Amino acid sequence: MYEPESDQTDEAVRFTIGDVVLVAMAGFATALIVSLVLVALGIGDEDDLIASVIILVPAQYIGQLAVLAWIVKRRKTTFAEGLRFDIQPGDLFYTLTGLALQFVIALLFLPLYDLVGLGDSGQTIIDVAADSELPLIAMIILSLSAAVIAPVVEELTYRGVLLRSLARRMSVRATIVVSSLVFASVHILSVDLGDPQWLLQFGILIPQLFLVAVPLAWLTLKHNRLGPAIFTHAGFNLWLVIFVAGSDYFTSLQ
Known about the structure:
- The chain is mostly helical.
- It has helices at residues 8-12, 17-40, 49-74, 79-82, 94-116, 124-130, 136-167, 172-185, 198-223, 227-253.
C-alpha cells in the first residue's frame, strides 16, 4: 500500500470531522431554503420538478462551497495550501480514468439492477434527467453541475477536509476505506425517500459509490493534491451527462 509522504502543512492546519458535517448541513440547509422559495414562487409542483432540480443542485453546491471557504479562512490557510487544491495541465487526462471507471461499474451493476427489477439508479437528479426531455439550457446547467461544480466541491470536502482529518488518526488503508464509506453513505440525501424501493436502491448505490471513492482517495494520497481526483470524478460524472441525461436531448435533435 502506498504510504504518503509527511507534510508539515498537515500538522499546522487541522481540519476536523465537524467541518465535514458543517459542509453537509450547509448543502442541506441551502437546498431547503431554495425549495421553500421555489414553492412560494409557485415552482414547487410536480410538473415543475425538472426546473426545481436544475435550480436546487447548483444552489446546494454553492452553499457547501461558501461554508468550505469560511472554514478555510477560519483555519487561516488557503484552498491550495490547506486542502491541496492544485490542478495541473496533465490532470485533464484523468478524465479518461473517470470514464473508464464509470464503464466498469456500469458493467458490474447493471445486471444487478435487472435482477432485482429496479428501473431507476436511486439518485433523483439522474433519474429525472433520464426520464425527461430537458431543454438545452437545462442540459448546460446540469452538465456544469455534474462535471464541474460537483467534482470540485465534493473533492474539497471528502478528499480534502475529511481525508486529511482521518489521515492524522488512521492508517492509509483505514483512511481510504472510512472516507469512501462516508462519501457513499451521505448520498442517501440524493435518493428519493418517497420511493417504496428507496432502501433497496440505496443498498445498491452504496457499493457503487464506494468503488468510485476508493481510487479517488488513493489518487489524492498518492499525489498529495486534489487535481487527479477532481478530473477522475469529472470524467465519471460526465459519462452520466452524455449517456443518461443527454440521450433524450440528442435523440430529439435527430
